Amino acid sequence: RAMRHQLGTFSQTASPPPLKIWFVFGVALSLLLIVQLQSAEGRSRQARSLQLTMPRELITLQVGQCGNQIGQEFWQQLCFEHGIRPDGILEQQSADTQDRKDVFFYQADDEKYIPRAVLIDLEPRVHANIKSSAYKTLFNHENFFCPTDAGGAGNNWGEGYSKGEDKMEQLFDIIDREADGSDNPEGFVLCHSVAGGTGSGLGSFLLERLNDRYPKKLIHTYSVFPNQDETSDVVVQPYNSLLTLKRLTQNADSVVVLDNTALNRIASTITAGEHEGSFTQVNRLVSTIMAASTTTLRYPSYMNNDLVGLLASLIPTPRLHFLMTGFTPLVSGDMHSTSVRKTSVLDVMARLLQPKNIMVSTPRPSRNNSHCYVSILNVIQGDVDPTQVHKSLQRIRERRQTKFIPWGPASIQVALSRKNQTDNRVSGLMLANHTSIAQLFKGTRKSFDSLYKAKAFIGQFRKQKMFEDSLTEFEDSRQVCAVSVWSCASLVDGCCVAWFGWLLLSSRRSGGLRCFVGFCSDALLQLVFFFWLFLFGFVLVCCHSFLCVVGRLGPCW
What we know:
The chain is α/β, with parallel strands linked by helices. The chain has helices at 2-13, 18-53, 64-82, 125-131, 157-166, 168-180, 198-213, 237-251, 260-270, 279-293, 295-298, 307-312, 345-352, 386-399, 437-452, 459-462, 472-493, 496-505, 512-517, 522-549, and strands at 57-63, 105-107, 113-115, 117-120, 144-145, 185-193, 218-225, 254-259, 322-328, 373-382, 412-417, 426-434. It has a 10-stranded mixed sheet, sandwiched between helices. Strands 2-3 form a two-stranded antiparallel ribbon.
């Protein structure tokens, strides 16, 4: 009462203008915010300029027989593009080129270029072939990891995983040395196969440990999936594939899927159907994809100068990071000549959308097929006018050659690169996020179910420490695969409630709810979310009505 009397007296005698004070305070605060925004913009411009001048290095990890073989072809392709001889010496005519060799190479004391690569295998055969090839002096021999007492993984995922746990300190001594030797490392590139023992088991172990050891670094993988049309000699291949698929889903930031079914078909197409594609031709196809997908990193322009910028437009959520690729014109055996005699921007962009040029075996588009694109990025290589790109995009849009998700932007993004891998005037690479990748997951799950139902060949895994007590790891991996299939189906349906529910369940650290969704159908899950939404609204209305009755909120609105 006394304070109200004093305030009343003060207001009658002094009468301060509160509106003017608040106005001056607001103006001062606005000026301060403007100054802060300008300084932040200046810092961001400086950071972008430093990003254009300072390369962000990528460390390549080649795991297993398949990973080392495609890695060897990849480094040969990079040496050919950058003008580096097999002994690591830069050719004279390539000394003045404005490229970023430091993304994948570093210069030694003798000024030779050394790949930022760690070659990992549990058998010495592939390493011996690399050391006896023409590129034997290119690699750092301290980065060859092949324990003498390893004895191989025996095409068993559990054996490869256990060998990784036993040799963890030796393995990460090499990886940490490479990371410490980089000025601004952006992440890791993993090359492996998901069907064998070393590439799947040891590769899965590396994915988990890299995610824990370097949580702020990207993990980008080139994963070769087995041929679904042929019977494999590895009887436990479905087990290996499903266990690796769980780690790729939970621990990788982006996965470029390379299907052996499509790779063999494309390799036989290059040879005009004379014979099936050899391992060398298939590995060369994979190395072409790897080199083309990193072109904008090694030959920078105004956009897509780092791996984050390249993948940001392709991956809408952390879980939906499995990418399909396509390349045209296809390169024949001598790495230079192609079957396409004349190329244009429109022709290249139209060919990239054809299923025969995609490196994943997916169902062909039809009326009964509801699969569609989530996002597309085309990397067009060669001396190209941007106006031709706009005309080509308009022509493709008029012909309705692509089908996108109903709730997202229906547009194809294009990145231009002056460097061209082939002798053609224009070549192109497509990186796409497509819902038909779920068919590959379904095939893996179907093969797993046929073996696991009869508990066939489980004894080989029972010998490992992880599977001694129980087989819950198989069940958890199957549930993660089921969630991946369901997430692609929810994208096609376009149901807001199902999409919102999947977003809640797509975090990396989610646990029990994700396992429950693996057994639910789309309709049941949507009904569950509708029920909880209705229950939440009903509780809100009841609480508000009760407060209105007791007079806390006034009249009911």
